[in-house]
Amino acid sequence: MTLSRLLALLVFALVALAAPAAGVLAPAGAAAQEAAAGPDYAHWEDFASRAEDRIGDVGTTDLGLEQIRAQLVDWRDRFLEAQTANRSRIETLQGQIAALGPAPGEGQGEAREIAARRQELTEALSRLQAPGIAAEEAYRRADGLVREIDRVLRDRQADALMQLWPAPVNPANWPAAIAALSGTFGGIAHELADAWASSTRRAALTEGLPRTLFLLCLAIVLILRGRRWMERLTHALARSVRGRGGPVWAFVVSLGQIVLPYLGILALVAAAQSTGLVGLVGNAFVETLPDVGLTLLLARWIAGRVFAAAGAPIVGVAADRLAEGRFHGAGLGLLVALEDLRLRIVQPTEAVEAANAVLAFPLIALAGLLLLRIGQLLATDVPLAGGEGVDYRARLVGLLGRAAMAVGVAGPLMGAIGYVAAASAVVFPAVLSLGLLAVLLILQRLASDIYAAILGTGVEEARGALVPVLFGFALAIVALPVLALIWGARDSDLWEIWTRFREGFQIGDTRIAPTDFVTFVAVFAAGYMATRLLQGALSATVLPRTSLDAGAQKAVVAGLGYVGITLAGLIAFSTAGIDLSSLAIVAGALSVGIGFGLQNIVSNFVSGIILLVERPISEGDWIDVGGTSGWVRAISVRSTRIETFDRSFVIVPNSDLISGRVTNWTRFNLAGRLIVPVGVAYGSDTRKVERILRTIAEDHPLVVLNPPPLVAFMGFGDSALNFEMRMILRDVNFSLATRSEINHTIAARFAAEGIEIPFPQRDLWLRGPAALAAAAAAAGPAPSLPSPAPPAAGPPPAAVPRPADGPLGDPPAPIREP
User: Pairing state of beta strands 710-716 and 510-512?
Assistant: First the structure.
C-alpha cells in the first residue's frame, strides 16, 4: 500500500458512512419486486452446498474465497431484508389475536365463534411468519459461511506473515535477486530492441516526434522546476499576506508543489507511450510511474508542511533539525515508492523466495534506519505554544516517535533473520501510519486557519478553540478504517463490521439498528424544536395579553416545555419502532438505582414541579430560607437561584423550599412590619418619649396609619429604658432605608428635646482600701505611671446604691469606669 492510496482509503471511509443514505436514494421498484417475490431458496441451497465444498478445499485460492464471500454477503443481505416481510400484516394479526383475549387453559371452555376466529387468525399468522422464519434460518447459514471464510483467510494471512524465507544477508541468495532484476529490465530492453527493429514503429516514431519532444520538454520543466516555483510562491505569499486568510491561501498554493510535478510525470508517461516502442513489460513499468511519483511528491509535501522552515511547524522540533526531518520524510516516501514499484514489476510468481527476500531487505533496512532517525526527532518533540491540549499532543507525538524507533530496530532484524514478509508488514505500515498522522495534523491546522480567517481571531487562539478540536476528532474517527487497511485489514473485514453495525443490537424482543437511532434523533429533534417554537409564541404573543403575572406565565411556559419534551420522546420511540414494553425490566432496574442513588435528584425534581404548580414563590420574590435572604431570580426543575443583597447568587435545592421553612416577604402583598428598638437614659419622661416616637412614625410617608403605629415600653435594661416602634410599611422592600431615616429623625428629635440616649457603663467598688494601702507600702514605692487622661465628656453616670462597708471596717472606695 502506498501513500497515493491514502486518499482512496479516506474516500472509502466516507462512502461507508454514506452507505445508508445511498440505500435510501436507490430506486425502490426493483427492491420491492424482489421483496415481494422472495429469495430463491432452491438456488440458495445449491449455491450454499457448493460454497461449503470450495471452502473445505485447501486448494481454493484467496481470490476464489473472496469471490465466494462476496456472493454469500449478497445472499445474506437478501435474507436479512426478507426477515421483515409482512411485518405490518403480522403486527395486525397479533393485535387481532390479542383482542380476543388470552387463550383458555386446560379444562376451560370458550365460545365457538371466538375459538373458530382464534384458530383462523393463528393459521393466517403462521403462514405469514413462515417466510420470515425461513429467511432467518438461511441468514444464519450464510452468515456462518462468511465467518468461516474470514477465518480461513486470516489463518492464511498469518501463515504467510510468519513464513521463513532464505536469509537476505546470505550472499548465496544474491544471484537469484540479480537474475530477477536482469530478467525484468532485460525484458524491457528486449522489447525496445524489437520495436526499434520494426520499420513501421520507427516511422510512427518519426511522425509523432514533435509531439513526443514537446511532451518530454514539458515533463522535464515541470518535474525539475515546477516544485521550486510553487515553493517560492508559497513563501512569498506567506510573507506578504499577513491578514485574515493568509495561511489558508498559502496552503492552497502549496498544493501546486504536488500538482505541477505530477503533471510533468503524466506528460513523461504520455511521451513514452507516444513513441510506440513500449511493449507489455515496459508499459507496465511506465504505468507505475504516476503512482510512484505521486507517492514521492506527497511524502515531500507532507514533510515540508510538518517540518516547515517558514512559519510555525506542526511538531515542535528544534529549528536546526527541521531540514533533517524534511530529508527523512522525503526518504521514507522514496522507499515506499520503490517498494510499490518492486511489488508491481517483480511479482512473487516470477522470482523465487530468495530473490524476493534479497530485493525487499535493502528497502526494509533503509526504511528502518529512517524510522529510527525520525522517531528520535519526534521523541524529542519541543512543546508548542497555543492551546491547553498541546502538552497532550506533544506527549502523543513523543510516544509515536518511540514506537517508530522500536519498529525501525525490530523490522530490519526480523528481515535479516528471514522473516521478510513479517518485517515488510511492520515497517512499511508504520511509515504509512506516520504519513496518515501527519495528514491529520495538517488538516487540523488547516481547519484552525480557516476558523481564524472566518472569525477574525488570532491563529494561536483559533488553534485552541473548540471547533477545530472537534474537527480533528472527527478526522481521527474517519481515519480509523484507513489505519486498519494500512495494517493489513481487508476491505471485506471493514464492510463486515459496517454490516454488523447496521444490523444493530438486540434488547429483549426489540432490535435497535443505527437507522432506528437516526429516526429517533430526527423525530425527537423535530418535537423539541416544535416545543420551543410553541413556548416562544406563547411567551411573546399569547400570555402577555392574559391576566397572569410574570411568574405564572413562566410556570405555564416551563410546564408546556416538560410536556412537549415528554411527548416528543414517546413519539420518537414509537416512530423508531422501539418497543418500550420490552424495556420494562431495564426500567425496573433503573428505578431501583434511582431510588437509592438518585433520590435527592428525584426529590428536587418533584419539588420543582410542585413549585411550578402551587407557586408558593415566584421569580422576583424576596424570600428568607435557611438563613439565606434575597431575591428569587430563576426557578428550574432541580434548584432555585437566589440573588442575595450583596449581589452574590446562592443555589438552593428545591426540596429545601418545599420541606423547610420559607419566609416570603413579597409574594401576596408588599406590606410588612418594621420594628425599631430605641433606648433612653434612666430618668427620662417615658410618656414624652412615647409621644415623640409615635409622632415620628406617623409622619413617615411609608408608614401605614391603619392599623396605626405602636410604641411599646418594653422594660428596664442594664443601661437604658427600652422602647420599640412597631409599624406597617406600604412596601417592605424599603425597610432598610425607612429604618435609617427613622433613626436619623429620632437622634435629631431627642437632641432637641434634651432626651439622652445612654451607652453602657459600669462602677467598680474596691473593699478595704486601707489594707490595700498598707500592703502597697510594705512592698515599696510603686513605679511612676503617667497621669491618666481626663475622662471624656459625656452624661454623668447613673446613680448606683452605696454598698455596705467592707469587712475591714473602712468604707469602700468607688472607681468609676465608663
Answer: unpaired
Which residue's C-alpha cell is 506527497?
298
pLDDT at 693: 93
Cell digits for 321? Answer: 533539525
Which own/partner contact pairs does 140-147 have at CB distance under 8 Å and 24+ positions apart? 141/48, 142/48, 142/72, 142/73, 142/75, 142/76, 142/79, 143/76, 145/48, 145/51, 145/52, 145/55, 145/72, 146/69, 146/72, 146/73, 146/76, 146/496
The cell for 559 is 410546564
What number is the average pLDDT over the span 194-209? 83
Average of per-residue pLDDT across 292-306: 90
Rounded to whole angstroms, the Cα distance separating 520 from 574 reads 9
Identify residue 517 by its one-letter amino acid code.
F
**DSSP designation for 180:** H
For 709, which DSSP code?
P
pLDDT in tens, 791-814: 444 444 444 444 444 443 444 444
Q: Position of cell 420490552?
A: 582
Q: How far is CA 716 from CA 217, 598, 608, 681, 756, in A?
A: 118, 55, 49, 10, 15
Whether omega for the bond prior to residue 707 falls within 30 degrees of 0, making it cis, is yes
Which three cell numbers, joined as nine digits, stand for 245?
486568510
By CB atoms closer than 10 A (0-12, 13-18, 19+), residue 408 is buried
- Judged by DSSP in three states, 742 sits in helix
Cα R_g (the chain), whole angstroms: 46
Lowest mean pLDDT among 344-353, 365-374, 591-600, 708-717: 344-353
Distance CA 537, CA 539 (A): 6
The answer to whether the beta carbons of residues 816 and 794 sit under 8 Å apart is no
| CA-closest candidate to residue 234, choices 254, 219, 217 | 254
8-65 pLDDT tens trace: 444 444 444 444 433 433 333 444 444 455 788 889 999 999 999 999 888 888 889 9
The DSSP-derived string for 520-558 is HHHHHHHHHHHHHHHHHHIIIIIGGGSS--HHHHHHHHH
The order of strands in the sheet holding 649-653 is: 649-653, 639-644, 628-635, 622-625, 662-664
**Cα–Cα separations (whole angstroms), residue 54 to 50, 59, 77, 149, 641:** 6, 8, 21, 10, 73
In this structure, what C-alpha cell is assigned to residue 348? 512473487
In the chain, the amino acid numbered 604 is: N
User: pTM of the entire structure?
Assistant: 0.63
- Answer yes or no: are the C-beta atoms of 641 and 655 closer than 8 Å: no
Task: Residue 118: count other Cβ atoms within 10 Å of its Cβ.
Answer: 18
Number of helices (H) and strands (E) in the chain: give both, helices first: 29, 12
Reading the block at residue 323, the C-alpha cell is 531540514
pLDDT 10s digits, 149-180: 989 988 888 888 888 888 889 888 888 888 88
| Res 384 pLDDT > 50 | no
Q: Which amino acid belongs to residue 450?
A: I
Cα within 13 Å of Cα(801), Cβ side:
2
d(CA 803, CA 91) in angstroms, rounded, equals: 105
Q: In 653-668, which positions are buried (b, 16+ CB within 10 angstroms) versus exposed (e)?
A: bbbbbbeeebeebbbe
Cell of 357: 527476500
Give pLDDT, residue 178: 85
